[in-house]
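seq as requested:
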Amino acid sequence: MNAFLSALDATIGVARVVFLALAAAATAVCVTDWAVRTRRISPFSGIARFFRSSIDPLLAPIERRIVRGGGIPSNAPWWGLGIVILAGILIIWLLGFIRSQVTVIEFATGSGARGVLQLIVGWIFAILQIALLIRVFSSWVPSVAGSAWIRWTYTLTEPILRPLRRFIPPVGGMIDITPIVAYFLLRVVQWLIVGML
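struct tokens:
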């Protein structure tokens, strides 16, 4: 297990360096492409021709989504940079999460059946809390809220939120605070259950 954790630590270190280099390169590309698109660099220069033939086709899918959303196509390079940075953060976080879960599994299995049961209870409550957070954040983006990859959050959280809505009215008639209440209730119930094990 220690060899696996060491390999995972090395992978995380390499991922950090790779994504930092990718972000730096993407920043340089985005600044130059933005300058070409906004005519700060002559559209007839060699740099402009290179970017139109090589970089713009890579940014075309992002540009189409921006235009469909009513945005300005010249912002596509900045959105591309944002995607690279977000992907780097997400992958590094995921590797760190896997590492922490391997450590927790190792500790739980060393603690016997009680440790494994506490681990399973912790995972169940963590999934419910993550579903609540995703549901809240997705509600801020109406085009995402009804998508297929968000529906599982409604399936998991609605049985918790529906009873709470009977007792907790929306604040100001508009803001539903039941997800916040449910999140903290889940933490309390998890603490009680784990304490009883």
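The chain has two domains: 1-110, 112-197.
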